[in-house]
Amino acid sequence: VDGEGNVTFKRLPTTQLVEALQLGIQCIVGGLQAKAARDVLYKDFLDIEIIHFPKEGTRTTPAHKFSDFTIRSYASVAFRHFRELFNIKPEEFLHSICEPLRELRNPGASGSLFYLTSDDEFILKTVQKKEADFLRGLLPGYYMNVTQNPRTLLPKYFGFYCYQGENKNIRIAVMNNLIPSQVHMHEKYDLKGSTFKRRASSQERQKESPTWKDLDFMERHPDGFLLDVETYNAVVKTVQRDCRVLESFRIMDYSFLIGVHYIDHTITGDSGITERLTDPSIVQQPKRMMYSTPMDTINAEFEVHNKPDDYLVETGGIPARTASGQRLLLYIGIIDILQSYRLRKQLEHTFKSVLTDASTISVTNPSFYSERFQRFLCNTVFKKISRDTGATKKFRT
Ligand code: ATP
Ligand code: CA
Ligand code: CA
What we know:
The protein has 12 helices and 18 strands. It has helices spanning 14-34, 76-85, 90-98, 129-148, 202-205, 214-220, 229-248, 294-297, 310-313, 343-355, 366-381, 390-395, and strands spanning 8-9, 12-13, 48-53, 69-74, 102-104, 114-116, 122-127, 157-165, 168-176, 187-191, 211-212, 225-228, 255-262, 266-268, 274-276, 318-321, 327-335, 382-385. It binds adenosine-5'-triphosphate and calcium ion (2 copies).
């Protein structure tokens, strides 16, 4: 926050950043519509489109109230293709981006800004230069995988831009939002499969909806989340497939994000009236993006016995139970994948290994990281319940 009470990022008022970006994306996506559709070429991934926005405006850019700025758009044609792949129409994308954005309180330590579009579809995240460089190099190979398998828990990037102005460069990636804002998340976990220092900080705990970590999860859910056999298998298969991709790019330090909604949770307010924490009167707008709900992502279908109420079906949360039989819907995805294994990490590993048991540290090598991540998810976090066992019968009503 600066001297005049404005929220700033790299000393730039964030409202200015957002508005400049909205103007930029409008011009870029608008300009793209004029270009004929064609197959994506490898060189499209390397392409950078640069648009200058002088204060007074030009023939193609509007006048604005900020100082001059420039928007760089990376791989515009390739991103257009990927938006099409997920059935995101240009006018819908523009509409999503240009409506007022909501800033999310970022629980990450990196200091990145997060914005959510008002239709709940996209997240805009500021990324560091080294992450941006990594993403640019990653794109061709990454999208080779995503086009082969659009049902993935990996983040989907739909645009990548850089704001340049007032001697600053701010890089922003547009990706899919995993957590529907209409559904109340009673708990949120950011899991890595590591136990080393993986506990929410005391500062995080004081927040209204803290993001908990691995050790917190094991304490609160020592028996994990119980899933139907088919659902469990679908989750495991998707996680394995995605981890293979991450490992092949030598990516590490990513997290598994889980939003947990307790279907039967009620709260008793001051009035003594018990109310549901999800408002059925809010009609969830169906997601326009393809393969975007958790159930779509893992390629699973609701079974009759645990199909959620209609107003929750659209959100596509994964039905699960706690060991004590509470009904849950889970919202999941893999996040924060722009960290690759480098020498710095190697040094850090050697150093930390001397101090503690190496397997519990979160900085290790990519294949070890991926294996531990999968083991934790498939054995500790998710457990399968057989529909034929007494246990499930007990849950069924
Ligand atoms: P750090 O590097 O310190 O871990 P970061 O700034 O890179 O943090 P992330 O780890 O990407 O941030 O995300 C921080 C939090 O933001 C997550 O725990 C999650 O609550 C939320 N978040 C991130 N990506 C998404 C997404 N695609 N959908 C919904 N929420 C998200
Ligand atoms: Ca992270
Ligand atoms: Ca990060």
